[in-house]
Amino acid sequence: MKVWFCCLILLLSLAPLNAQEAPNLLRNSGFEEGLSAWFLKGADRVKTEFSVTSHEKFQRALRLDVTPQAKDMPWSVVLRQEIGAPLPKGKQLTLKAWLRSPEKMQVTAFVEGAKAPYVKTLTATITLTPEWQE
C-alpha cells in the first residue's frame, strides 16, 4: 500500500498566552534547505520530493511518498526536529503546518520530551483533505 502525504511551512512557537506573534522555534521550517535540521525516521520506506508552489502562504512544499511495511507501527515513519528549548509554565505552545493528502490519511503531530518517559505536551491527530489546510 502506498500513501501520499505532503506538508509545508511548519511553525512551532513558544509565547506568553496573550502574545500576538512569537518566534519560530524550528529551523528550516519552510524546507528552504531541504531536510537540513530535520530527522526522517523510516527513511528507507520514504521517497522525498521538494517542489515550488504558487500558494499565497508558502513557496516550497515537501512531498513524502511512504510505502509502509507489514509490521510498521504508527511511529515507524516520523519527520521530526529537536527543539532544544525549555517549555516553561505559563507559556502557550503552538504548532502550525500546511498539509494535504489525496488519500485523506490521518497524521499525528506531537511535541514530546527528549528523554524517557517521553511525555507528550502537545498532540493532535488530523484527517487530511486533498486541499491545503492549516
Features:
single chain; 134 residues; mainly beta; 4-stranded antiparallel sheet; two-stranded antiparallel ribbon; 8 strands; globular; disordered N terminus
Question: Oligomeric state of the chains?
Answer: single chain
Please identify the structural class as seen in this structure. mainly beta
Helix tally equals 0
- Backbone shape: globular
Spans of at least 5 consecutive residues whose pLDDT stays below 50 are 1-9, 14-18
End-to-end distance, in Å? 26 Å
Helices and strands, in N-to-C order?
EEEEEEEE
**Mean pLDDT across every amino acid position:** 79
Radius of gyration: 15 Å
Using DSSP, what is the number of strands?
Answer: 8
Helix content: under 10%
Tell me the strand percentage band.
Answer: 35-45%
For the sheet with most strands, the description reads: 4 strands, antiparallel
**Main β-sheet, spatial strand arrangement:** 3-4-1-6
Structural commentary:
This protein is mainly beta and 134 residues long. Helices cover 0% and strands 44% of the residues. It contains no helices and eight strands. It has strands spanning 3-16, 39-41, 46-52, 60-66, 78-80, 91-100, 106-112, 120-127. It has a four-stranded antiparallel β-sheet, with no helix packed on it. The protein has a two-stranded antiparallel sheet with strand order 2-5. Strands 7-8 form a two-stranded antiparallel ribbon. It is globular.
